[in-house]
Amino acid sequence: EEQIIAILKEQxxxxxxxxxxxxHGISEPTFYNWKxxxxxxxxxxxxxxxxxxxxNARLKKLLADTMLDNAALKDLLAKKW
Length: 81
Prior knowledge:
Elements (H helix, E strand, L loop, with lengths): L1 H11 L4 H8 L3 H11 L4 H36 L3
């Protein structure tokens, strides 16, 4: 994240996008994806964002597992013995 933010700050300082992409060996679509995600962030904010994204993914997985268990129990209870 630190390198990405440094590259974005170079562009904000006035370097042209095409020149910047050649200098760092990245494609323009990659640059614009980074800009959409990290534009205007500081390094500490980007690290916090990454932590929140990983926590969100973990919580989504827990929710999906719980919903599967719930559906299986409902199916089991719905069967006529």
